[in-house]
Amino acid sequence: MAATLLDGKLLAEKIRAEIAAEVSEFTRRTRVKPCLAAVLIGEDPASQVYVRSKQKACEQNGLTSHLHRLEGETTTDELLALIGRLNSDPSVHGILVQLPLPKGIDTTRVLDAVLPLKDVDAFHPENVGRLVQGRPLFLPCTPHAIQQILIRHQIPTAGAEVVVVGRSEIVGKPIAMMLMQKGPGGDATVTVCHSRSHDLPSITRRADILIVAIGRANFVTANMVKPGAVVIDVGINRTEKGLVGDVDFEPVRQVAGRITPVPGGVGPLTITMLLQNTLLAARLQTA
Ligand code: NAP
Known about the structure:
Shape: globular
Distance between the termini: 51 Å
CATH superfamily of the largest domain: NAD(P)-binding Rossmann-like Domain
Strand content: 15-25%
Number of domains: 2
Helix content: 40-55%
CATH class of the largest domain: Alpha Beta
Strand order of the largest sheet: 1-11-8-7-5-6
Order of helices and strands: EHEHEHEHHHEHEHEEEEHEH
Oligomer: single chain
Bound molecules: NADP nicotinamide-adenine-dinucleotide phosphate
């Protein structure tokens, strides 16, 4: 029997409605509208699409968003000056710097300059450290999206064997950290694989929950998946056939128990978690 779809679009709509209600209540009570400042540098078409979707989601759910567009030739110091202005602007609650930044800009210096209280992507070392210690301020958006898919579909993580393929700072590492923490949506036994792992299929086949974030179209094949496993495909790859994930969807669907589609899986929820963090940032700065 084919796996059940974990529909990220549907879940995103549900959570966005919850957030919109909370935003409305917060604004009514405080007269403050949560505001996200998005910073986009250069002309990368995919980044333009992502930023536009994030702004649209803000507008549709009662948040404000401002776009700061800078030319590709912008220097690190110019970008740091903008971040400094946004940090000290009390009407801005969240700052999002769309990645990747053009070559020549020091990404680490830029991300380190965002005030931790406005760091709605949770990339600042203080927020990463808090996550590792199990006392997060903001949860990073894509890992939080993955965890919400598991929690909201009542997929048990406690004691589950989770395999994460990919060890990036924005997906692999933080989701591994979150799923191994104590408490709801955690308590899993987590293995992290990467490009130097030996015999990947023998590891991925152990997974009750397999999370793939590597950026390689259709990489995970049916023989790499344990029958009945939950498969979360984070990958977004542009191919001649359109957007595809890191998982070879149709064959894997015949083996897995539940699976996220691409598009319409993790992606819509990632933006939803950004809205949630912007609301949280506004709350923290208004308290
Ligand atoms: P990344 O920074 O490029 O990291 C890729 C990771 O995959 C690295 O750890 C790499 O290992 C590992 N890897 C690459 N080839 C491998 C192989 N053959 N076997 C095992 N591991 C391999 O990627 P990312 O930023 O995490 O993004 C991954 C994918 O998720 C991309 O398609 C991206 O577009 C997508 N994404 C989606 C969302 C969303 O909202 N849906 C959000 C973020 C990213 P090494 O460390 O050894 O190099």
